[in-house]
Amino acid sequence: MFQQLLQRIEEQLLQEKPLVVYRKPSQKMVKGIFQSDSKIHYCIDFKETGFVFAPFNEKGEVILIPIDELVQSQFEPSEHSISLNNKSQIDYPSTDIDEKNFHIQLVAKAIDEIKKGRFKKVVLSRLMSATFQGAPLQLFLKLLNTYTEAFCYMWYHPKVGLWLGATPEVLVNIQNKQIQTMSLAGTQPYTGDPDPDWKKKEREEQSMVTNYITNALKSLVTNLYISETESLRAGSLMHLRTKITGRLKVLDIKKLVKLLHPTPAVGGLPKSEAYDFITANENYNREFYTGYLGELNFKEEIERASSNRNIENKAYRSIHTKTDLFVNLRCMQIVGHNATIYVGGGITTDSIPEQEWGETVNKSATMLKVIQNR
């Protein structure tokens, strides 16, 4: 059955028609959504149904792949493992300025602006390039095998491009009016300890994100609950995570997403000042990196046991509307046999430029592990 899904993906790519294939965290079901034409459909009021793909720029258009055809199948890790050619190598993008020095100087500039009071935090990113042998579908299979706890996807539109990723961060989950989101910030390499020590910088960075999200939600939700902060492993990295839940007063997904995106985990705080600094100084267009993607207004049938004790072995079914959106981290854009990989990190007053460079190197390992066959 999974082989049939793979064949359907290959057919759609050959026909140059839009598709997205993905698996949610800790699940085995892989879903493929296939569009019947090559048009670009946009999400206007978030009352549509389909798979959305949004850029970092909150004013940018959100692309929608409608559910013209849905194919899904169970995936067992290792069953479809495909090795890539070991000739893959890393090539930094051609630039007049050394990439490492540029990023270190950019971080130092951001720290100066923070000390001047322009903003409290800003997330700065960079890109790198890698060549690989094989097909994008092989990379997607490697993502499925390698990152079982992440949202893994391959997204393609002939008029936009091809993207793959394995992100650990939820933007928001909505079922009817019940919502769940998270603040995810702070990074260190995984060394085998599931609960490592965290420095002041990482804890304060994570706290900023948590406070922003909870304050943004207060006017929209009731029964707001904030969990204890915990360590979360995402591949070879560890992060700090706080879960936030509540119930929407009014189901307005567009308004909710506008408040949340971009969160300080990918932009900064205050939101507008950090965004202006990013767009003026990063020296490249993030496009869909640090945007969001996922299911919008999907219908899900839930079967539950009947509460009537006089009726044995009976069940009732209810239809729920669900929206599951994820932040597009740990991702890459594919053009031919070249992959552009996007990585970044949060900068605060306690940041050390050389260490921030090292954090982007650590984060790049998520995609490089897939490309380099290591």
TrEMBL record:
InterPro entries attached to this UniProt entry: ADC_synthase, Chorismate_C
Occurrences of domain Chorismate-utilising enzyme C-terminal (ranges): 103-305, 318-363
Name of this chain's protein: Chorismate-binding protein
Annotated organism of origin: Sediminicola arcticus
Record lineage: Bacteria, Pseudomonadati, Bacteroidota, Flavobacteriia, Flavobacteriales
